[in-house]
Amino acid sequence: MAVRELVENSLDAAELAGILPDVYVRIVANDPSAETANQEPKAYRVTVADNGPGVDPHHVPRAFGKVFYGSKYVLRQSRGMFGMGGTMAILYGQITTNKPVKITTSTDGKSRHIFEMLIDISENKPIILRKDTEEGAEKTGTRVDVILEGDFTRAAQKINEYFKQTALVGSYANLTFVDPIGRITAYERATEAMPPPPKETLPHPYGIDVEALKRMIKITEEKSMEKFMGNKHFHRVGETNAKKFLSFAGIEAKIAPEKLSNEQIVKIVDALQRYPEFLPPDASCLSPVGESILTTGIIKELQPEFSTVVLRPPSSYSGFPFLVEVGLVYGGRALDPGRKLLRFANRIPLLYDESSDVSFKVLNEEIDWRRYHVPDDAPVAVITHICSTKIPYKTVGKEYIADRPEIESEIKNAVREALRRLSLFLSKKGSMEAVQRKMSIYSKYLPLMAQFSTELAGQKKEPRYQQLLKEEEAEVEEIKEEMADRSGNPDVVGENVIEQTTIEDYR
Ligand SMILES: Nc1ncnc2c1ncn2[C@@H]1O[C@H](COP(=O)(O)OP(=O)(O)OP(=O)(O)O)[C@@H](O)[C@H]1O
Ligand SMILES: [Mg+2]
User: Fold this and answer.
1) Above 80 in pLDDT, residue 494?
2) Which residues pair with 64 in a beta bridge?
């Protein structure tokens, strides 16, 4: 979890600044000479360094030494949500080893700010032990060094899986991981294209609860409810609709937001859910990985025989826009027999509790695989990626996604479309193999048959059977060409032609 939270922060920071991410991660025994060096668990130093924009030195103590401080409280599609992920990893280190965290950051690429801090747990505030500025930084970025107790032999598999899957959806990032025995795994950037950075958006009225409305009222400068409702507080609500809504809710248009009673606030929230004339949320704030970046990642990491990516049009649940993209991968060296599910939410790989997730439910309970002639032991991987300004995780652990009916149905539609494409590919592959089998039999027996029949008939000249073989060969070539349209791997059959349905088409 510590590795994941710190890497997530690095990727978020670089991507939001429009920088192609370079992230370096190293885990090493904190004291290799100690007597306990061969035991597990023990203290490890986890280092995560990035080439992001850096953190303003004034913000460092709060960002890394205070739980629930996040710069991401705006509504935006980012990995971080709560302002506690990185800080929790730091706190875990402090609790298990009592060692301070070290933050090194540069925002100008020249000077470097170094902090060593502990967190005062009872006060939820940072205790700064060291604060220095040095010249000589070569680039902007942030490095976090945290010492924590862990059992690497147990964690290794999940950590490796995390990097592999992150590289799959983040084919535009360079990820380097050095493990405690010094093995380096490098996931290299395969494309310079990055998904457009997600834009901030205003909350949609359907997504507002009592607490959220109270928070908005506390900070607004508007002096009347009609101005508050209709002026840049809510997504796609203008003045006319604001007035109509207030009369629907039975709230005076001129009343000042701060004068509202608790009952009135509850009444408004209730009416927000029922008012039928709000426009649906606009999804221009969402940033899916996209067909080309995802295909690049799939080819690089899985070298499949076939792959396809389906991007569904944006939709919404409870006022939050979301969008589903699904990748379907078949065959290749990296896939073992059997179906594999790889789940992502806002580009985070979800590695735990698979069976509680909505994607698992769709794949196992709602898709009739026999209809697509894909056997249970086929080497298939299904990649589901859900992007939203708010992912409906069932718990704070960011591990599995609730089965909201809207999301469920989008996943189902996307998987079905991908399966139709795979099934087409498989049937062509099947007929190609049948023709090839036929050909190999023909080419073995035809010359003999020709020879015997010539002898039997007492003729001198054999019939011209070569033409028959040529026709069969042409048939194979034709099927190969057709298959190339759907193949994800240009090495196997011809060029990789993918349908370019992009998010732009839906806007
Ligand atoms: N590598 C980094 N580069 C730049 N800013 C960072 C970096 N790491 C953390 N931050 C800043 O510190 C804040 C706190 O990070 P933290 O992981 O605790 O919360 P979060 O990412 O906002 O939400 P979540 O709890 O979902 O991770 C971030 O919002 C960000 O502003
Ligand atoms: Mg975070």
Assistant:
1) no
2) none
